[in-house]
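Review box. Two proteins, two foldings.
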Amino acid sequence: MLTGAGVSAESGVPTFRGGGRTAVWKGMPFEVISSAGMVRSNLPEVWEWFDYRRGVLSTCRPNPAHETIARWQDRFDSFTLATQNIDGLHAAAGSREVLELHGNAWRARCLKCGGREELREKPSDVRPPVCVACGGQMRPDVVLFGEMLPERVWISAAERAARCDLCFVVGTSAIVYPAAGLPYAAAEAGAFLVEINPEPTPLSEACDATLRGAAGEILPLLDEEGA
């Protein structure tokens, strides 16, 4: 199962993208403030932006889609969840070993040694946070514009997509690559491809089934029907 922003939008999580060149933070568009270049040029500003984002996320809770997906992990002998979301709501709903393709807004990563730490366990008044292992400065552990996906997570997702029997694509626009390529890899390997989305996407024509509507409404219905 691959999930995108549409799943979390039902929990009140905004996309923050702002639309085109619309300013989203102190006059800067999303692709500037959330970029690798900004980490290099103004790391404190990046932290201010992500602290604001986490403030918004802190009021959001898992919705019925997150909860249904978490139940499916116990229901099926083999189940993989990959998400483009960085909000941590899948884990909050009970999902385990989530493949977070774009990272997690609640983690920090050291620029020096690469170590990762939970931000909830670090003092919020120290920015940038300091790595406990080496004393280096830390950055948000998310994939920013101009960066590659985490190699280990991406390889795991690609390998599992290529050998799955059933692939659900839920709440994603299917335009953000390389994650958007996972359903096509699954289909090429013979998987039955199902899209759940309120609107058609570039992936829709390649799907074996499309279910139009909100994930929080459709997934619980499938659960009830024993899909």
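Next protein.
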Amino acid sequence: MIELQRDNGLWVVTINRPDKANSLTSGMLERLCEIYESAGDARVVILTGAGKVFSAGADLDEARAGLATSGLWERLSGAVAACPGLTIAALNGTLAGGANGMVLACDIRLAVPGAKFFYPVMKLGYLPQPSDPGRMAALIGPSRTKLILMGGQKILSDEALSFGLVDRLIDGDVVAAAKEIAADTLGAKPEIAVGIKALCA
């Protein structure tokens, strides 16, 4: 349910469980962790979903059994953040719950118009994973972060763009747009790309 395509330094990771809104099981999270932890040689990693929803977060049955508070979420976002290559989230639809962490840890976020963004930890009675509020606040500020995490607000794509939660809206093939953005990085000397990413930290 996690697919990986590799092509000369370009990795495309697809969450492929559209019949369940790409909700994530512990096995899927483990696989995502393994991919990003082994991505040291990847020049660009694009993360996307199959179907019309990027990810609804944790699988409901597994969430009730403890997945909602698993350390796998933090392990995954940490692995994405530590990836030396350019990481791009190509959001093909709505982003919800714990799936926010890996997206917040990416370098660039693209989304289709009509996507919704929400992280209902307050309503569900969970704390967010430790790194998520800080990463979100770095992008959109502490007040807007509280609007989402404490106010439980669903943010629509246009507002997400104005907040800085996403960097660009793509009315079309969001993965193709991500590949176009990746082209200069893929064409550059690896040390230049890695050096520029380090300077932007």
